[in-house]
Amino acid sequence: MKQLTAEQLNRYQRDGFLVLENFATRAECEALQQRAAELVAEFDPQGVISIFSTREQTRQSDEYFLTSGDKIRFFFEEEAFSADGQLRQAKEHSLNKIGHALHDLDPVFSAFSRKPALADIATDLGYQQPLLLQSMYIFKQPNIGGEVTCHQDATFLFTEPLSVTGCWFALEDATQENGCLWAIPGGHRAGLRKRFVRADNGGTRFELLDESPWPDDLLMPLAVPQGTLILLHGLLPHLSYANRSPKSRHAYTLHLIDGVCAYPAENWLQRSPDLPPRGF
Ligand code: FE2
Asked: What value does the mean pLDDT take over residues 92-113?
């Protein structure tokens, strides 16, 4: 069944994003939050100090990150640790995100990610063979929730031709205070600025394609209520600022690619042959 009207598709093509309020119910949002809390409760943080930082991504991209494409793994906030490397507060208040295969390995996230309405949206967007490549549960913790600098999702999830779409679900109200998304409307019409690839030395690196700066003055906030789905074109420049407020801003993201496109071996995210990306 069609989900998007011609007017909505036109807006998506014009702006590079589309805000769909009330995509998920409050109960669905709470069920995902509850499931994430259970996963965190089962997680033993000892030995895992892979701090996720978009500012120093190359240095931080260790083995734990590089092999997380087909696993459920936990990444800490940069500001979660004291100088001696200990967590300053409980693990549930210290995590930046869970990634990157919740949608395949966890039944609750799998069911939400494979809602028929989402499959219909993928069809409306023109996917021939939609694949659910990657998912993240993002906590954007109160006070320490880190900034995500301006980027295009195709930098990280590159196909030939480009096919990635981001599905960003607000599990709580997202406001300017707690770190909502910001985007540059129409910015997807400029080309891809860089690619994030595996380096020969075992780490990762950015391959620069276009060094022109982002027109920051054109950024607009996408403050949305709980239950909203924001569709993000893979070339749309977007970011979120740090959360210095006392309220968390939980979100779930799912990234689709088209199986008819080529997926390069140098992409940072690789899935093992026994767990290839699946469709809806
Ligand atoms: Fe993104």
From this structure: 97
